[in-house]
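Please fill in the sequence for the structure shown.

STRUCTURE ENCODING:
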């Protein structure tokens, strides 16, 4: 089995720079598609290995929902959570130390030690109109978590 490119490799840098420029969670497939559109020669399996390594190294947050493709977004080094728009996929990192404290307190009351706290908040951002709820599954053509056709008024700037 091939390993992910080492720290500082051109592929790792390329993937991380693309993800750092995104305000939405992206699948490895979407990362590959965007890099190829920018003229990169990176292979799809290399992208998959790189995003997995970046997530393992704590540089990317990953959302894995049953029956859906994993999606990635760069994260800060501090403990945080995300609020994600279910219409356009835009995500905002939020600090919530009270959630961390609550999770550790509840676990301790029941004889557990917390190894990870995962909170998933979804809703509509202030750029997307309320109304019909989009399909819950990510658009596998674009790899972006959200509907197949995001509202243009809240789409990510080019």
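FILLED IN BY: designer on duty
SEQUENCE:
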């Amino acid at each position: 089995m091939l390993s992910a490119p080492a720290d500082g490799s051109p592929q790792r840098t390329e993937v991380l720079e693309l993800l750092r420029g995104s305000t939405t969670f992206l699948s490895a497939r979407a990362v590959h598609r965007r890099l190829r559109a920018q003229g990169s020669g990176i292979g799809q399996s290399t992208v998959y290995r790189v995003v997995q390594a970046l997530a393992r190294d704590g540089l990317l947050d990953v959302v894995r929902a049953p029956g859906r493709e994993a999606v990635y977004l760069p994260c800060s080094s501090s403990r945080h959570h995300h609020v994600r728009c279910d219409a356009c996929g835009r995500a905002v990192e939020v600090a919530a130390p009270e959630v961390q404290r609550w999770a550790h307190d509840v676990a301790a009351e029941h004889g557990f030690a917390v190894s990870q706290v995962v909170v998933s908040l979804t809703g509509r951002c202030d750029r997307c109109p309320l109304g019909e709820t989009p399909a819950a599954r990510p658009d596998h053509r674009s790899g972006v978590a959200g509907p197949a056709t995001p509202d243009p008024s809240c789409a990510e700037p080019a």
